[in-house]
What does this fold into?
Amino acid sequence: MVDDRRDFSPPEGWRDREDGSELVAGAFVAALKNGSHADLVEYADIAAEFADYGMLGVATQMVRGLLSRIAMQKNRPADEVLALLDSNAVVDASGLMDILGDPQTLLDVRILGLIAHLARAQNRNNDALRHFMAAAEAAGSLGFELDEAINYQSLGALYSEIGDLEEATSFSDRALDIYASMGDWGRLIATRLNQVQVLISQERYADAELVLDQLREPVLRLRDGHYSASWKRCGLLIEIKQGQVNLARAELVKLYQSRMRAGDLRLAETLARDIAILTEDVRDEKAAVPWWRKALTLSQRLGDHHEQQIMAHALAVALLRDNQFEDAIAAFSVSLDADSNDVYEDDANQALADRGTAHLAFALDLLERAKRRTKDAKANAEEAWTHLATAESELLRSIEFFHATRDIEWSLRTATNLRAVWIAANKLSYGAQVMGGWARQVESWDSGYAASLYRLAATLNVEPGQDSELASSQLLQAAEIDAREQRLDASAVLADAHILARSDLSLLDRLAAFDRAIALARQDGDMALVGDILNDSALVAVEEQDWDKANDRLRAADEVAEQSSNRVLAAMVKGNLGEIYSRQSQFEIARQYFAEASALAEQVGDLESAADSMASSANSMLSLGKSAELEQAVRDAETLAERSRSSSARARARSSRASLLYSKGEFSEAFRAWEDASKLVEPSERHEYRRLALEALVAEGDYSKFNVALERYFRAAQAEGTQLLLAGQLWHVVSGWLKSDRVQLAAKVLAYSVLLAIDGYSSLPNREEDDTESVRARDLLGITTALAPARIYLEWEDELGPLKVARLNRHFEKYVRSAIEDPKDAEIVIDLVHTFGDGWEEDDD
It folds into this structure.
């Protein structure tokens, strides 16, 4: 005989207590020994609730206890039943049915449903569908109508989640029929609202509105705030999809507030998530953060571990997009901690991969800050390396899981971020080797992913000092894989060509990669793409100053543009033709092309390009001495730039105005115009305008104003992290002071260019474990533009004469020694300039 039922019921109010699961567990143990059938049914329902909330450890232990009780009742060994649940709570369904036999009681039905909930919580959807079906059929045969309908409803919801909307509708309709016959309006409305959400996902808004209209009266009669709010929510979601965003968002906020007042935390959490997503869409991530925080807090209050994991992840992503790196990393950690038992491995590893990405983003931000040479520069650099190491570790851990589970989307996403880590950390050779190894491993089970990995490896191998031949080979491997799978297209081959364009392969080899893309585009009849590729490949030839090859390709592109009446392509090509003729000092031809490019760009509405081309046309007229036409061209460039609202175009037009002023001898006004131009662009684009401004002061001969500007630009470059860029420009200013015999000022400019180059290089990422070849190549590229000209001037006796060279060296060394505190360091810099380049030709051979 069992004891009084009250002794074995779950503790009252356990859902509202932090130790609620422990209280339930204690009462459950007592119920297993002496509780009634009704007690165990209630605990089976609670176990299903725990499973839905992500508390799978507790749910699994309750399943074990219930199965042990059933085994005892059916005279079966408990160990035989418990063996059906492995350590991950995965149930051997066929073995379970063999032991249970035909379900005979409500408890048998509830256990089948509970096992389905466990499977669903673990994303084992096929198992969940099978168990929900078994539970529904068992309930129907035993006459438990409500359980039959509930399991049909669960089937409908799960089929909806996995995208089988036909089955979702079918099972939901079965549940509806039963609920209607029972007069269970609450569950009927809930099921119909689920169907409305399916219709919304299908963009069948008229059908969704029809269902909501049909539910209006039943919802009013039920007089239940939860169902009323759920009904209103669905209507607002339709309004949002139809573009009525602002008013609907305001109503969602009101619904959220009302559900919070009513203590309806589950629906309040759903509404907070809706508002967060909507806010991201119509405002920005920063505005959405408070709503993601509300959703996370509610999931924590509900004790729903899986929802905590999801909400914390969403919050972290919003914080990361808003560049709140530390808060994002902390939120990703909350997401990972919510699943301490590694039940939701897919979600956990996605959060781990994204946390690695957050560490990467934070590291890159810190490295940028370190370049500015502030008092925190050293600390920022050291912290950046810590975050890079963490990013690499976490991304490698997560990609191992994604490879094991064959999750291609997340594998590729993670591999792409690892590439960024290895570039930032100068681990190019290592990274390329790892990527290539993965590509060979995965080719047997996903060739498309393998092709992507070969391409990622190639992007590392084309970096300075790496293996461009290997990069070319890897890109060909990727193309061969795509060709075998019949997915090779011109766009993919063009992307490969752009990768090789950065390599140190010969110009012919690089152009051959573009030609392969052209051939495929011609096969597809995509002449617009053919023109684009011809234009792109011409620019590669321009960089090598192979004017003939560049000209041939641009003229071929121009012919394609004319034949296809493609004015966008024509404007771009004519602008580039103007550029190559300008570089060859054929300014009359260049002027004509620039004017045509500007007119065409204006016709197609590209006012920024129109302004840039007109500014280039004005500069060509300046070189031709066409002062009358020049004034009009500059005005046209300024007008187009203002209309375009592009800061870059306005800067180019302002620079053209400065050039015009300079040509008239109005050097002070030209200086101010170039200063204005520099303020219109990003720090990385200011160096050339600053050099031109200094040249204006040289021409004016105002050495006092020049000194002030030089000092200001020097400090600005340090603050902006653009030392190397300005260093590569300053040497242009030297000759002007030498011509006027201002040797001391010329020496100062040379010294400042060298000091900036050294300072800029020392602020770059560098570690002992860096790839030797890539660091050496970066050394050369980073300081050549300053140190090579300095050496030439300081040793240019044939042009300057020995006396002037001696004076130049004396003043140069004085400036270097006064700027560097440690005398030994100063002598090293001076010696570096005079020995710069010695032995490189021999080494490179």
In short: The mean pLDDT is 87. Residues 242 and 257 are 24 Å apart (CA to CA). The radius of gyration is 36 Å.
